[in-house]
User: Fold this.
Amino acid sequence: MSQSEKAATAGLREWPSEKLDYAAITDTVLDAMRPPSRRYYVWVTVLALVVAAAFSAWIYQVRVGMVVTGVNHPVGWGCYIGNFVFWVGIAHSGTLISAILHLVRARWRNAVSRSAEAMTIFAVLTAGLFPLIHLGRLWVFYYIIPYPSERQLWPNFTSALVWDFVAVSTYLTVSVIFFYVGMLPDLASVRDRAVSRLGPDHIHARIYRWLALGWSGTAHQWRHYGRSYLYFAALATPLVISVHSVVSWDFAMGLLPGWHSAVFPPYFVAGAIHSGLAMVLVLMIPMRRWLRLESLVTIEHFDALAQTMLLTTAIVAYAYVVEPFISWYSGDLQEWQFTAWRATGHMAWMYWALIPLNVLAPLAFVFRRVRRNFKALFTVAILVTVGMWIERYFIVVGSTSHDFLPHNWGPYHPSWVEWTITAGSFAWFMFWFLLFSKTLPVIPAGEMKGLLAEGQTHDLHVRTPLDAHGQIARSRAGVLAIFPGPEPLLLALRGMHGSSFRQLETLSPVKVGEVEQFLGLSHGPIRYWTFFGALSGCIGGLWLASGTAGVNGLIVGGKSTPVAWIPYCIVAFEGTILMGTLANLTGLIVHARLGPQRALPAAYDPAFSRDKFGLFVSCEPARLEEAKRELARFKPEEIRVIHH
Assistant:
């Protein structure tokens, strides 16, 4: 390993081993996808049986009716809605780690971001089931979807429940796209290994070839990919804050004591991230050992996660203190009596359990010894997960069982059907996560290799960029030089300034930022796709909401018109994020020349997705020997003549 590699490795506390290089990182990540053991199939079978039991309980509920649940008067929302809020909260840590920490350049996020993103998708899929289960009559769920019909019935976009549907569906769509785009370089590595080991016609090779969308790692692809991924992160960051704020408005927009509070949006967002980070620890600690990822996911990563949880612990603790204070300071008698009931009534044990589970337990992370002990980390994470589920259940059930009128007070106890379906939701979530761990790369190898590349090119600068136009796919012939790392690649690029060859392209397993400077690549047009997509989404959201208001013609609350522009801003915001993301994805596919049937360039080598760096010089057949002599000056590992 060169001195620059050692310096880069030493600068990353999470990578103490000097044995890590591009090939080792790739092999470690791909080896985790090796055929599963018998224990894996046992766990999958057990989880599938629990899901089957939950499905049977749900079928029983559909056939008999909601009477088989504990939902009663006045508790119209019970365990199912508490589960919905809990699972939406679990989903938030993935976007926090992937998007927000990407924007602030937190380097420790790379090792855990892929699993957190997958967790986000599976948690949203789980959360989305519970409004349907709670609905009872599942077959009428489409009433909340805005679509033209002969009934002329449109959703009411001033309803917080409709905001929920818009926000959660947008969050799921954006999360899936963000997750998939981030995997493209790693899917190319999986594709190349499958082709080399199983053959190009094997079903696995064909699936991963389709998923990789023809990714080859050229400089022009990395250029558009880097910009697009940054815009994805920028769009997802406000979305993660808005989604659980919208979920909290399901309660805050109501008038019940304990719900009608302006502190709910930040309280819910902080609690969501708090529970999501705990779930990341619960999943990553055993997965790290089970998939043999100790060299990539180190104790330093878990230390950083625990320190982040200290921040969310402080916010949650503040909310626990300020909520009864607001109740007392408001002078509202109903609010104050409800606060006193929560602390002394039949649900008081839940109220007081929240403090040790969600505040005192994670405060142990103040001590470095606790943060660096896997058993302590796992134990605290389990306690927080249990505590956050109790909190969501308590928020939903508490206010409905103890509202304004004493004769309306009543207890709520979940039935065996609700407990079975709740257990099934956890099994459903874990089932998908186990499938993910053996079918897709659980760690972003490209980003991990990018950290290693950062320290290898910091002393190389370009004065006059070359005039390259990415003609690797259109040129008839050329010469390919293969280098062991980014530094010799950049040295070769710099040396080509004195030659007459101007049509150059690079191929690499990671993005090498200096390549764009050497080749004179601009920022690209994807930002225009994103901007105009977001603008059309904003306008479309306002048009949809105001148009449906005109059709419904509902004038309530002393309004003079059915249109309510302030609530419609929520729909417009979600439309902005959704259409901006879709347009960003479209721009990436168009300009990076990606597609399921896209053929790889003739100069491509599977080593470029693993650990090698290539420089392709496009030229006429008569100049091939001259190009070989020019490239030989930079001592590449191999020189190939490419005939298209």
Notes: The longest strand covers residues 477-483.
